[in-house]
Amino acid sequence: MKTLSPKELTDELRPILTRHKRERAPLVPILQEVQERFGYLPRESMLEIANFMQIAASTIYGVATFYNQFRFTPMGRHPIKVCMGTACHMRGGRLVLEALERELEIKVGDTTPDEEFSLDRVACIGCCVLAPVTVIGEDIHPKMTPFKVEEALTGLKEKASQGNSKSNKKEG
Ligand code: FES
Fold first, then answer.
1. 34 alpha carbon to ligand 1 midpoint, in Å?
2. What percent of the chain is predicted at pLDDT more than 70?
3. Which of 3, 67, 96, 108 is the one with CA 20 to 30 A from 145?
């Protein structure tokens, strides 16, 4: 999704906020709808919600950070989701997550600076027999291990660096 100007962001947010204010909705559904609309919670959107709903921005930030369903950076072109449901967690999901953090040099909830990869943890995705499971883009990677992480990312990283060097050439 392209980055929105402050005016565009406000125009997108106003109808959502007006409706929720009319319905006196609690904060979480508002944040969920804003995240659905933008794919994440832009910082400016939280300030806008604070102003509009007349709630302190720190309260909004506190609620948003309390739930790990919310993210504060845009999704990467290749979203990576590590299942941390019980079966996956028991079979080493945490180690896979840590290996991905090391390999991508980001923390869970973040996106790489080139916006190629974002890393998130998710609850059970319903294929526990394949645990531990990681979803990269549309592809399910069953019985994932820290050793398979590099291999799983190699092709995508190569594609990304080819894409980046092409766009650098165009700019140069
Ligand atoms: S716990 Fe991971 S797929 Fe069910």
1. 27
2. 91
3. 67
Atom 1, ligand 1: residue with shortest CA distance = 85
| Count of alpha carbons within 13 angstroms of residue 141, beta-carbon side | 21
The pLDDT assigned to 68 comes to 76
Whether ligand 1 lies within 6 angstroms of the CB of 87 is answered as yes
Question: Which atom of ligand 1 lies at the shortest distance from residue 133's CA?
Answer: 2
Provide long-range contacts, Cβ within 8 A and 24+ apart, for 159-162.
Answer: 160/77, 160/78, 160/114, 160/116, 160/117
Vertex 62 angle, CA 134 and 51, to 5°: 120
Q: Is 86 in the pocket of ligand 1 (CB under 6 A)?
A: yes
| Rounded-to-integer distance, Cα 95 and Cα 54, Å | 42
Measured at the CA of 163, the angle between CA 162 and CA 167, to 5 degrees, comes to 115
